[in-house]
Amino acid sequence: MVEFESDTGCHPIAFSSDGFLLRGVLHRPPKTPAPPVVIGSHGLLSNGSSPKQIALAKRCAACGIAFFRFDHRGCGHSQGLFHDVTSLAQRCRDLLNAAATMAARNDIGPVVGLFGSSMGGAVSLSAAKTLGARAVVTVAAPVRSRGIAALEDPQMKNPALPTQGHVPPRTFDIAGQLHGLSHVLIVHGSADAVVPVENAHEIHRRVGNPKKLVIQPEGDHRMSDPGHQQMFADQAMAWFRRHLLSQSESTP
């Protein structure tokens, strides 16, 4: 792991995942010893520097929760060719290695939460049991790739992406992995044309209590309505504070 400390509470960090150098930023509360940490997983064609994730990271740090946002392999500033290295399994490996990087630090506590947007939501839900996540927040998360054009063929959405090389399978179905999960907040727009809102209802049916479903009226996949963005941030922060800070205080 390579790390470069800053004086602003934001620490750029690089770590290895299956031989790829991935880069991210840790937002750490400067006056909180061993805070809980939320690890973010971005969408298929996004990266860890999305405005939604940065805003959430800043709010987490302000209330005593660290937040680590990173670029999955093949995205942003991380190594790898997108078409060669992108699948649900590979992104889950990235998330597990990001969590291991946080666990190796002596200034981060053992309590972990997860945030995932779109495909990142499926990644977070898939890895939650392995990581023992105490809280999970998803936005527009798909249960399965079937019928979602951007997941079945990202080239359709972004023709500029390179097509050379082997393309790993991107088909997935995480329905069977949802049983036994709990402490999940699900946010979804009712007018999402990319990942239909039925996915949110299915996740809510399959996971256990405590759980919460927030449907944003006429909300789209990108959460472009500022009011919806504020609603999401408020709901996510309340969820993380409730399930991470109380757990952190009771953890030896």
Account of the 3D structure:
This protein has 252 residues and is an alpha/beta fold. It has a single domain (2-149, 169-250), classed as Alpha/Beta hydrolase fold, catalytic domain (Rossmann fold), CATH 3.40.50.1820. 35% of the residues lie in helices and 20% in strands. The protein has eight helices and nine strands. Helix 1 crosses helix 8 and helix 3 (88-103) packs across helix 4 (119-131). The longest helix is centred in the last third of the chain and has 25 residues, at 226-250. It is globular, with a radius of gyration of 17 Å. The relative contact order is 0.14.
Write the layout of secondary structure elements.
Blueprint (H helix, E strand, L loop, with lengths): L1 E2 L6 E8 L2 E8 L9 E5 L9 H12 L3 E5 L11 H4 L2 H16 L8 E6 L1 H13 L3 E5 L9 H4 L1 H4 L26 E6 L8 H9 L4 E6 L9 H25 L2
Parallel strand pairs: 4-5, 4-6, 6-7, 7-8, 8-9
Antiparallel strand pairs: 1-2, 2-3, 3-5
Helix pairs in contact: 1-8, 3-4
Condensed summary:
The protein has 252 residues and is of the alpha/beta class.
What can be said about the biggest beta sheet? 9 strands, mixed
CATH uppermost class: Alpha Beta
Q: What is the strand content?
A: 15-25%
Global geometry: globular
Number of domains: 1
What helical percentage do the residues reach? 25-40%
| Second-tier CATH architecture | 3-Layer(aba) Sandwich
Q: Looking at this structure, what is the CATH superfamily? A: Alpha/Beta hydrolase fold, catalytic domain
Low-confidence stretches: 1-7, 159-168
Distance between the termini: 27 Å
Radius of gyration: 17 Å
The assigned structural class equals: alpha/beta
CATH fold naming = Rossmann fold
Number of helices: 8
Write down how many β-strands occur, each being a DSSP E stretch of 2 or more residues.
Answer: 9
Spatial strand order of the main sheet: 1-2-3-5-4-6-7-8-9
The run of helices and strands is: EEEEHEHHEHEHHEHEH
